[in-house]
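Chapter review: from sequence to fold.
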Amino acid sequence: MYIDSLKGTVEYQKFEEYKEIISAMILSGAENEIHIYAAECDDNMDEEDPATLSILVKDGQTVVNYFSVGNETLFASVGDMEKDGNLEWKIGSETYSATQYQLISLEKALECALQFFASQEKPDCIEWEEL
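The token string follows.
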């Protein structure tokens, strides 16, 4: 499994090592853009891309996106539907937009990352909306 973050890309073969690293990255709450995938890929979005879990972390909050194989479908996390409004995060050199109701806890984002390691399917531990 590959973890691509603001610190670079590293491959993890063993679950325990992956769990230790991804837990530290997410639970720190520190600003990060994390992409998790099972096969090497390039920056061009095409039909050969593996399923990818994307986790944006900022100020102790997260937004999670799931991209299916070949980027055929895209899903965003759903947190508290009562939250209204949009947010804009600058993470590294990129700016990201999301809606407030897409925010989920650090712990839920970690649960998604751990489930994703096993199957590379959309995790079932949170609610999703298709984009």
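Two observations follow directly from the output. The first helix runs from residue 15 to 27. The chain has a mean pLDDT of 92.
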